[in-house]
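Quiz preparation item.
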């Protein structure tokens, strides 16, 4: 439970008052996961010994603040730590041990890479979006927009609590998805080891792209396609992207397959249950696994 308090004698955690950001909001959620009962006081500055027995974050220039001259460290990729990242470094593994029974070190790094780092980077002014005609809205923007509007007469702490409710849902979902990914990695690593002729087979869909691209297994570099059961029926064959987040594939399906369906695709490929090839040539579908693998083999040889 998180309670906002105004008496220093009640508080066990301290952060800054005024405008809030995703950084200290998610930091507060993480602290609740570790300590359960958070009595949080928001102050404008740390100016007395009254705070010495409190956990202070995102203010005061201490262990969990990043506003001091020179910041408070950065990752090997240059992303500076904000309070969320500093607290995740300190407590993340401890929390994961309570909710995950797998590779804690890997899961800790994955959550930092895929969630914490962006929030830290935004708070440290390290994210620059390319100028486009639409506004790019991130989770950091959504949380920051929970602050009172200039013409809104509301209690700022109440808005802080509203932001915590949203952040809690997001945090729980991201942790759940990260743990799910970490469990998937075991199966993907096995599929990479067993891959043949550039084709990797999974019994069902699971996150795979990131693991293939970052795998230390030499065979991963040769994987062109992955086959898995589709939740819409049949089996999908998907190209492996050249890099994470890219639509550019290591090897697309043949040009003559583009946009074909059912009998047309079957006539061109000779694969009996072939049913669809996307016009962008990054996914094909067949009725069974054998035919899906056959499509992948044809594409690999093309």
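Solution:
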């Amino acid at each position: 439970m998180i309670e906002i308090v105004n008496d220093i004698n009640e508080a066990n955690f301290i952060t800054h008052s005024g405008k809030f950001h995703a950084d200290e909001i998610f930091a507060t959620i993480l602290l609740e996961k570790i300590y359960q009962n958070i009595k949080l006081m928001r102050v404008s500055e740390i100016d007395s010994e009254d705070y010495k027995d409190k956990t202070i974050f995102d203010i005061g220039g201490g262990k969990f603040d990043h506003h001091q001259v020179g910041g408070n460290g950065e990752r090997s990729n240059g992303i500076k730590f904000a309070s969320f990242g500093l607290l995740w470094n300190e407590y993340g593994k401890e929390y994961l041990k309570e909710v995950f029974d797998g590779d804690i070190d890997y899961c800790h790094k994955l959550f930092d890479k895929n969630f914490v780092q962006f929030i830290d980077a935004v708070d440290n002014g390290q994210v620059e979006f390319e100028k486009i005609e639409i506004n790019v809205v991130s989770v950091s923007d959504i949380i920051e927009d929970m602050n009172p509007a200039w013409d809104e007469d509301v209690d700022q702490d109440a808005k802080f609590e509203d932001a915590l409710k949203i952040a809690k849902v997001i945090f729980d979902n991201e942790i759940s998805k990260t743990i799910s990914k970490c469990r998937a990695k075991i199966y993907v690593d096995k599929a990479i080891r067993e891959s043949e002729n550039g084709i990797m087979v999974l019994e069902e869909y699971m996150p795979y792209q990131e693991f293939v691209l970052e795998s230390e297994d030499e065979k991963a570099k040769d994987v062109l396609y992955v086959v898995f059961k589709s939740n819409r029926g049949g089996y999908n064959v998907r190209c492996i992207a050249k890099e994470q987040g890219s639509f550019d594939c290591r090897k697309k399906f043949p040009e003559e397959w583009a946009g074909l369906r059912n009998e047309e695709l079957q006539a061109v490929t000779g694969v009996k249950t072939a049913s669809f090839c996307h016009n962008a040539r990054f996914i094909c579908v067949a009725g069974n696994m054998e035919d899906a693998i056959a499509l992948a083999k044809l594409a690999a040889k093309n």
